[in-house]
């Protein structure tokens, strides 16, 4: 198969082309700069940007892959979760392409896409693994088998903010702008991660072992900044950024490794936008090495939203002989991750 993947759930317009587990090429546009002055993604602006970027970005993906439109044998598109207006644009574009080329269309769960991104770099997932999804809207520990055939088991999620959301909110209150993850990460390079001791929620043994909470951490950072400002003292942005980042990373890695051990597995996969974070990658690698656990993290450009990861899911669905979703599928903006395809086959 030559599968075109379409992603438009947030502020990235992504097209990717995958064949038999191999990424042939991709195109990516982002409206992040247009949202910066609002401190977060404005759905209507994102939708409009997807509409403008769709055809040029598809052209880039085709040229990058060195394939003609008529070579595409299947189309896969994010049908949820995400911003409804944004998902609609990419899904409509995918339907148009599938209809014009008379090829099957698959609706794909965006988070299955994040997980599948890793297969483009490291090959098929092992028979079973723990997948830590850390993104702008989700923070989940999953037990995953065959992405297409096996149901996905949620071991734990976040009670409040997602990890990426915490980065974005803390970035805003430190005046570092949107998107927050890369901004905090850059500021943290020159900071001392031990300068401030920020809370690590739910980390004691008696707490819910795989559940996260990041809103208290965000509040603690806000209090620290307020206190310094009230006292007329300078705000050590680099130290606060580094200490915040360290607190998030500590909790994420501790709980993910706990899940790997509890399930007697040997592989941890970390995916989603926050997996691009250098400190998370380094700390996870150190702790996995010490524990004899195989760590898989896609390269940073495949961690944040892109079309290649959606094409990767489509390619898996095709090769597993799954029925296509058809041209009538609708968006499912708040879809929970149970399987790779959306809607799940009846
Ligand atoms: P979801 O996948 O849950 O629907 P999303 O698609 O908006 O949400 P992603 O694109 O996967 O999220 O990730 C974006 C998030 O990742 C943002 O919150 C951003 O701040 C964060 N992020 C990106 N790069 C980094 C980084 N280097 N360090 C930390 N966080 C990062
Ligand atoms: Mg984004
Ligand atoms: Fe995402």
Automatic annotation (TrEMBL):
Residues 25-311 form the Gcp-like domain. It is an enzyme of class 2 (transferase). Binds 1 Fe(2+) ion per subunit. Fe cation binds at residues 110, 114, 305. Its cofactor is Fe(2+). It catalyses: L-threonylcarbamoyladenylate + adenosine(37) in tRNA = N(6)-L-threonylcarbamoyladenosine(37) in tRNA + AMP + H(+). The keyword Nucleus does not apply. Keywords: Acyltransferase, Cytoplasm, Iron, Metal-binding, Transferase, tRNA processing. It comes from the Bacteria. HAMAP family: TsaD. Belongs to the KAE1 / TsaD family. Required for the formation of a threonylcarbamoyl group on adenosine at position 37 (t(6)A37) in tRNAs that read codons beginning with adenine. Is involved in the transfer of the threonylcarbamoyl moiety of threonylcarbamoyl-AMP (TC-AMP) to the N6 group of A37, together with TsaE and TsaB. TsaD likely plays a direct catalytic role in this reaction. This is tRNA N6-adenosine threonylcarbamoyltransferase. The lineage of its organism: Bacteria, Bacillati, Actinomycetota, Actinomycetes, Micrococcales. The gene is tsaD.
């Amino acid at each position: 198969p030559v599968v075109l993947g379409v992603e438009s759930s947030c502020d990235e317009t992504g097209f990717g082309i995958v064949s038999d587990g191999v990424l042939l090429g991709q195109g990516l546009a982002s409206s992040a700069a247009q949202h910066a002055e609002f401190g977060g993604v404005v759905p209507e602006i994102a939708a409009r940007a997807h509409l403008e970027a769709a055809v040029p970005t598809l052209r880039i993906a085709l040229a990058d892959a060195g394939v003609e439109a008529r070579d595409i044998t299947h189309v896969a598109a994010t049908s949820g979760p995400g911003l409804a207006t944004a998902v609609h644009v990419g899904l409509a574009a995918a339907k148009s392409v599938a209809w014009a080329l008379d090829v099957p269309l698959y609706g794909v769960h965006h988070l299955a896409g994040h997980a599948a991104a890793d297969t483009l770099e490291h090959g098929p997932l092992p028979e079973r693994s723990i997948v830590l999804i850390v993104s702008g809207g989700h923070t989940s520990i999953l037990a995953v088998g065959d992405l297409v055939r096996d149901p996905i088991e949620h071991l734990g999620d976040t009670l409040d903010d997602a990890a990426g959301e915490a980065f974005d909110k803390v970035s805003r209150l430190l005046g570092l702008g949107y998107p927050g993850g890369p901004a905090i990460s850059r500021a943290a390079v020159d900071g001392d991660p031990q300068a401030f001791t920020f809370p690590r929620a739910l980390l004691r043994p008696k707490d819910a072992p795989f559940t996260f909470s990041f809103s208290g951490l965000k509040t603690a950072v806000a209090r620290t900044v307020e206190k310094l400002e009230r006292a007329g003292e300078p705000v050590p942005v680099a130290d606060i950024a580094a200490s915040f980042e360290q607190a998030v990373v500590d909790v994420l890695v501790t709980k993910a490794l706990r899940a790997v051990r509890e399930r007697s597995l040997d592989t941890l996969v970390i995916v989603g936008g926050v997996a691009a974070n250098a400190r998370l990658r380094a700390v996870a690698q150190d702790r996995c090495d010490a524990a004899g656990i195989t760590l898989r993290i896609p390269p940073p450009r495949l961690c944040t939203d892109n079309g290649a990861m959606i094409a990767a899911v489509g390619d898996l669905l095709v090769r597993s002989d799954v029925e296509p979703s058809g041209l009538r599928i609708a968006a499912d903006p708040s879809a929970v991750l149970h399987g790779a395809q959306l809607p799940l086959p009846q």
